[in-house]
Specification:
By secondary structure, this protein is mostly beta strands. It has helices spanning 33-37, 164-167, and strands spanning 3-6, 13-16, 19-22, 25-28, 48-54, 60-65, 70-76, 79-85, 95-100, 104-108, 112-118, 123-129, 140-141.
Length: 180
């Protein structure tokens, strides 16, 4: 049975999935609407499914707050995820971290910045969203290694593999609460 757990960030959910395995490999239901909603999961109208393949250990993406909700699960490998609440209110700047693997998932509500770092090679990161990507979409970005966030990344900034764009994201102090 799938289990849904609340976190300290309102709307951010941690989901434990059931993985059935044998000598051939494994199978899981990554997203099962009826079972999730029976445990309080919000109505989530999926419009797009995305997959990110990450070849090396230490690939670090984010922190990005997109204008849609995301349901994230791994199909292969392990990753460290850091989610930051960038919405207006007392939780602004609050961080939750998770170790992602094929047996779990997280639901990230719009307004929260998401990021991850690969812990193994060949990580396949999948996510469902409830709005289509658009070049006009407004994103809020924060530097993943901002000391104010207090994230204990497994791979240091010096060894992490990041895009130049992600490296140039501003610190949390440069943001106004609720800009996400």
């Amino acid at each position: 049975m799938i289990t849904v757990k609340d976190t300290s960030v309102p709307g951010l959910l941690e989901i434990e999935l059931v993985v059935h395995g044998d000598e051939r490999g494994w199978f899981k239901e990554s997203f099962q609407r009826a079972e999730l909603e029976a445990q309080g999961f919000p109505s989530f109208g999926i419009v797009q499914s995305n997959v990110s393949y990450n070849r090396e250990i230490g690939v670090t993406r984010g922190i990005h707050a997109e204008p849609w909700d995301k349901y994230i699960s791994l199909a292969h490998g392990r990753a460290f995820a850091a989610i930051v609440d960038l919405r207006a209110g007392p939780g602004f700047g609050r961080v939750e971290t998770f170790e992602l693997h094929p047996g779990n998932a997280i639901f990230v509500p719009r307004g929260c910045g998401n990021s991850y770092q690969t812990l193994t090679a060949d990580v396949v990161y999948t996510y469902l969203v409830n709005d289509h990507w658009s070049p006009e979409a407004t994103y809020t970005n924060v530097n993943a290694y901002d000391p104010a966030l207090g994230i204990s990344w497994p791979v240091s900034a010096e060894r992490a593999i990041r895009s130049p764009k992600d490296v140039s994201h501003p610190p949390l102090s440069a943001l106004s609460p609720g800009t996400a």
